[in-house]
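Structure first, sequence second, as always.
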């Protein structure tokens, strides 16, 4: 009996042989892959080994950065400051202002509209005021500037643009033009020196006085 004949089924799709260009590209990709994959593996291994050291360097960098950017203390501003004290002869005085600003830790204050009241031994007093001032609290030194007025309760008043006051010593001085008036009359000069808390006033430079009663 003859064996039944076998019929070959037709292929589901036609296969085409690769061209020479495709073969060349395939060989190129295979060659590159053989070199690239080991290099990537080596780089990954190096990253795993050295990563803790890299993190440590970054931490040290951050600490160093923080040290160089320490915040600076801001200026201390006080509204309506009031400072009281006594001089070397136990005579009280008071320094006030509309506002005061202290830079840093030094007890030196920049004052807006400063005023000072100084009591005298005989019960009299001297009043000072200006637009601006700087008060050195440890040295009891007061610098005044802008429309400076010094008034003694005996009726004498001095006006100038600048004055330096030593509160403990009871002295004041200025080298700007000054105008004075009081029971004696009026006087202008190029500067002044005040001593003994106003008991003695010396007018410096060229001076012109009109005394009470019309005498010059």
């Amino acid at each position: 009996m003859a064996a039944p004949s076998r019929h070959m089924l037709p292929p589901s799709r036609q296969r085409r042989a690769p061209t020479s260009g495709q073969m060349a590209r395939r060989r190129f990709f295979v060659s590159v892959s053989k070199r690239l994959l080991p290099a990537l593996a080596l780089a990954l291994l190096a990253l795993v080994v050295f990563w803790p050291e890299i993190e440590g360097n970054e931490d040290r960098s951050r600490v160093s950065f923080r040290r160089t950017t320490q915040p600076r203390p801001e200026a201390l501003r006080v509204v309506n400051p009031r400072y009281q004290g006594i001089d070397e002869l136990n005579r009280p005085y008071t320094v006030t202002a509309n506002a005061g600003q202290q830079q840093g830790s030094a007890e030196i204050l920049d004052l807006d509209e400063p005023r000072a009241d100084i009591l005298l031994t005989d019960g009299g007093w001297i009043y000072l005021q200006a637009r601006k001032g700087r008060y050195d609290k440890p040295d009891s030194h007061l610098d005044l500037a802008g429309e400076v007025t010094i008034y003694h309760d005996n009726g004498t008043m001095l006006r100038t643009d600048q004055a330096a006051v030593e509160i403990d010593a009871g002295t004041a001085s200025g080298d700007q033009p000054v105008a004075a008036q009081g029971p004696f009359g009026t006087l202008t000069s190029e500067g002044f020196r005040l001593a003994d808390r106003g008991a003695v006033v010396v007018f410096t430079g060229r001076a012109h006085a009109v005394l009470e009663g019309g005498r010059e």
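Margin note: The helical segments are 20-67.
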